[in-house]
Amino acid sequence: MNRRALLAACTLAALAAPVAARQADPHAGHHGGGHPAAPADPHAGHSMPARGALPPLAPPPPEALTGPEHAADTVWDPAAMARARKAGLIDMHGRFRGAMVMADRLEARVRDGHDGYVWDAQGWWGGDYDKLWLKTEGHGAFGDALERAEFQALWSHAVAPFFDLQTGVRYDIRPHSGRTGPDRAHAVLGVQGLAPYWFEVDAALFLSEKGDLTARLEAEHDMRLTNRLILQPRAEVDLAAQDVPELGIGAGLSALEAGVRLRYEVVPEFAPYVGVEYQRLFGDTRDLARARDEDTGGWALVLGVRAWF
After folding, report:
1. 81 DSSP 8-state letter
2. Is the four-CA dihedral 64, 66, 69, 71 of positive or negative sign?
3. Which residue, among 308, 300, 244, has the nearest Cα to 107 in the 3D structure?
4. Are 244 and 228 a contacting pair, CB within 8 Å?
5. pLDDT by residue (tens digit) across 102-135?
6. The whole model's pTM is what?
7. Is residue 189 within 8 Å of residue 213, measured between CB atoms?
8. How many Å apart are CA 112 and CA 126, to the nearest integer?
9. Can you tell me whether residue 78 is helix, strand or coil?
10. d(CA 37, CA 18)
């Protein structure tokens, strides 16, 4: 091959090489499938915080920790400002006003020769701290006159997160048959609330218009067996500081009621129940009842309903 033919062959090989390379790789020479190359990332090489991470928080300046806690107290009366802050806090969270009426016991008691009925209800109206509280209870025998009815009107003030101090008046209505004595008014001082372990407690002192001092302590506890079935033990104790013969009350421990009720909540506001209760008079109270040929206690089957709204 002469020099001219050799030069022509090398030129053809040089021209054919790029064409062969493009046929082997159809994307050769293209950026991103024919699109222009992306510009360089200006943040390349910078460390970025993880997604969701909070920016660092600087401590408050030293000036923030100097001076009085409430600067307005340096200008106005601190006591007045404290009352204003408390009122503002209450307003901010809403002033509560509500009411409730509950019939805790509306029941019939079945006992050999001493069948009767009992009611125990109460209601209140007011706010978080102060309420008007009304209570009533009483009992009687079927087919006979009412034995006793009691009504209380009380001012109730919160003295702890779960307890209220209550004071007011109580008035007893009794039949004038000579068996249970005359009607009588009392001054009332007591506490009511929720004790540890979910015991509902109601304790009160009663000073009658005749100067007689008596006391009553009630306690009950709801044991939830299922979402609707509740077992409630309950006890009530009556005491007296002196004999009150016209009311059939003797000094010391005068009466005890203890029982258990099983109720079924058809809805939270309505629950029928069944249970048993033991009643007993003690000491001079029992002797006064026997002298009048009255019942001194025993076991009874109770059937009733608990309701509230």
Report:
1. H
2. negative
3. 300
4. no
5. 999 999 999 887 899 999 999 999 998 899 999 9
6. 0.71
7. no
8. 44
9. helix
10. 22
